[in-house]
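Deviations from the work plan: none for this task. Representative record:
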Amino acid sequence: MIEIRSVTKRFGSFTAVNDVSLDIAEGEFLTLLGPSGCGKTTLLRMLSGFETPTSGTLRIDGEEVTHLAPYRRNVNQVFQSYALFPHLTVADNIAFGLRMQKVPAPEITRRVDEVVELVALTGFASRRPHELSGGQRQRVALARAIVPRPKVLLLDEPLSALDAKLRQQMQLELKRLQKHLGMTFVFVTHDQEEALTMSDRIAVFNQGRLEQLGSASAIYHQPRTAFVADFIGEANLLTAEAIARSGTMTRLRVEGGLELEIPTDRWPAGGSKVVISLRPEKILVSKRPLEAEAIFTARVTDELFQGALDRLHLQTESGTRLTALVANESALREAIHAGDAVWCGVHADDIAVVGPA
Amino acid sequence: MHALADTAPAHGGRRAGVVAWLLLAPLALWLLLFVVVPMAGLVVYSFCQRDDLGRVVYDFSWENYARVFDPIYLKILGRSIGYAALTTVICIVIGYPVAWYIARQRSPLRERLLLLVMIPFWTSFLIRTYAWIAILKSEGLLNGLLQFSGVVTAPLSLLYTPTAVVIGLVYAYLPFMILPIYGSAEKLDNALVEAAHDLGAGPIRAFSHVIIPLTWPGIAAGIMLVFVPAIGMFAITDLMGGAQVPLIGNVIQNQFFRARNAPFGAALGVVFTLLFILTYALAHRRRRATTA
């Protein structure tokens, strides 16, 4: 549906988007994720036509749109600020795109009524935007953007102005709506949790570059760079060097002294030192011996109660410092406290090599 | 917000009221002395007569008002409205793009451009009008330039024509159109213009459906600030029109100073003022009806 080919965008000497290539499938929910200033919004604005690439090409539905004006593109955007027309009622805001397309009046009425019901705004059609709550305005912006039936819907951090509860609810509603419409959604956010919850695939951006593209679980479980491992979820990032190779497995010595094994095919070609990522919740912790591919003992140096989870700061016998997240004590049926000696376990699959050191 | 608005008066309601009145007092006094009193004097004058030497005689009648509706004066009033309307339209056509352009600039440049719009106010209005005379007269700057470059062989007669009057009026009132439109345009969120484009509106329809309606308060304020004073303007018509095209302002001025018929001038002034108030009230009522 969307083909982005070697797109670069510079503003003066600043490179906002650096040589990005990306394909987005029809009906896909793709999220552009990254910290502010990473280029995700600039890429979205090039898709909507508000910015023109410095180099590279963009195709939407087979048609080259690199230099096409925004009002000639079959895409619509939900703006971060919603950008509702303050002088028009909810119904007139929603009808705006259809009026521009010269759709006959009876059809406009029918389609506006339909979408008003779809986004649960029945009874608000004659209100002005300033008479609505934040959540209602958000739904008007959504309705206005989907009613012209664009090939692609672009969403620029549409949930960032909502409070946490409402945001979670809207995440589900948006996802359901996208499935229902079968429309391609390109969603921009800096909120990794939001990205993980909603997306079919996530494109992680950093400093204008596409760091990694993949499903939520692939991005989470197999981060390819230290940035991705650290930005999405939490990670113990540790330098490690290979000390022995036995058949399909390579033995690593991690900074501090802990030794672990990973499949040799994950070892990058060349280089003797790497950075590995280990998710805190993938470290098994118990006061009793446990089963795992790698087992070691450690001391709990600190314990932070965080509701559902306990955060444990560990120092292994060999000296490596790790953070682990475990289910709280009543779920585990054992209390682990600072100062306790514990058994730890790690599975080889849960160790990701995220780059050379 | 609501809670705040509700509790604020309970805290210091009475004292806040007194302070507000004290702060307003100088303005109220100024308005009383320089607006209410002279207007009242004008109304009293308008019912009086004059003697042969032009002195006001306090002999009340409606006679002056009957004379106001003489076709001669109605025709002049009509012409004044026509000139003011033309001036207003030209000011919108020139002023809107200028205001829009300034409003879209980044901060330091924007303030500098605004300053350029306001610089003319640093010099007396009369001096600036004389400058225009120097530019437009037969052996003036513009004709010199046109003849030097060979565009024309004989000097054009520009000064003391209706064109000169309109040039003078547009020049004098243009800043009063630019500034309020700038005020509206600067507040306009660019995302709204982008949203219009995104929904399929090209430049023209984005302008007519979104930009014009949202900057309308500025345009309306500009119309008020240009049209109303332009109707009554007499200095420019005197200096640049050479009394060729008397407008209502000139007639009123002449009644006071040349014809020495202050009561009739006052009657013209009162009718003229009532006309404004009526127009303003109607416009205001329509605006309230459309926003409600």
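The domain at 234-356 of chain A is CATH 2.40.50.100 (OB fold (Dihydrolipoamide Acetyltransferase, E2P)).
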